[in-house]
Known about the structure:
alpha/beta, 12 helices, seven-stranded mixed sheet, 23 strands
Amino acid sequence: MIEITDKIYYVGVNDRNKELFEGLWPLPNGVSYNSYLIDDEKVCLIDTVEVDFFMPYLKNIREVLGDRQVDYLVINHMEPDHSGAIELIRKYYPGIKIVTNKKAFCMIDGFYGMTTDGVEVCNGSTLDLGRHKLSFVLTPMVHWPETMVTLDTTTNTLFSGDAFGCFGALNGGIIDSEINCDTFWLEMVRYYSNIVGKYGTPVQNALKKLEGVQLDYICSTHGPVWHEYIDKVVGIYDRLSRYETEEGIVICYGTMYGNTERMAEVIARAASQAGIKNIVMYNVSKTHHSYIIRDVFRYRGLIVGAPTYNAGLYHEMEVLLSELAGKDIKNRHYIGWFGSYAWAGKAVGCIKEWNDTRLKFEPVGEPVEMKQSLKDDTFAQCEALGRAMAERLKQDRQ
Length: 398
């Protein structure tokens, strides 16, 4: 039994076996599916868990309630890792009333074939549990159209759905004050950039709705319960949703026989010698794109390079550029690019087209195209590209 504050309990579970979140994003440290229980005159469950974990989840609920019934189930977000146990919860607690918004009720019908006479809420709706008073705020497209958050105005506890969440299972402790949170900060950035990243404007709209609201606890559906680090957590989501970056360069490249990689090394060295400290390098065929996307959200400079392949762009670079374009990254980002070929050069032109039509980052420096191997002229051009990106970044220091 884990009490967060004043009869609010954590009843979630850990998933340490899933390898890819949403079938896409690596989970080296697992992930938690968080659910919460308010034990009051009326008992209220906040979100559920993935259905495969229902029996340990039910045990957690019964550890708090014993044989008591659950009166309400609030659903803040309909993705199945949070709504998947709805059908089973209703079997064990047949009198339960689902509390959510109109769009979510439509999804409950669509996902689970369930119709219900539950409690439909909208912005400003309230629910009285006895001592605890709940208030609801719709936050559409953070990151699904039905998303909302629930505020317990009695304890200033925000049940935030996926907002303020992060990858990583919980290793014993639940509240941030009980654990070392060092491993969660970059995983929060990766979670945001991978899952929510496209929806910066809706996140900003949601943050504005919460301006001035006292928050003593943030209970997300993934990761720790935030208490001591609330300002830091909200600040991270605020910066990321404004696409605010720090000085640094992500250099990512595809390479078949090492020649394109040698170009990347020269570019990186030149940028470092020109005064840039934050430089990260990734082979797009070796490093999962999840981590590259994370760092593109962190750093303002991006330099990409790849060989020509099948008269087009090297496959893994094509995939990465497609993923980045799908994030609809706004604000100030700079890009440079380079490529190589054996007999017909296409990669450089393909990268330019991606930027012109989809990414629309500010181009920096002259693209470098290398035929077959690195010679004195292309070596100097690579150095010039690295220096150009460094100088463009340093202009922002003023």
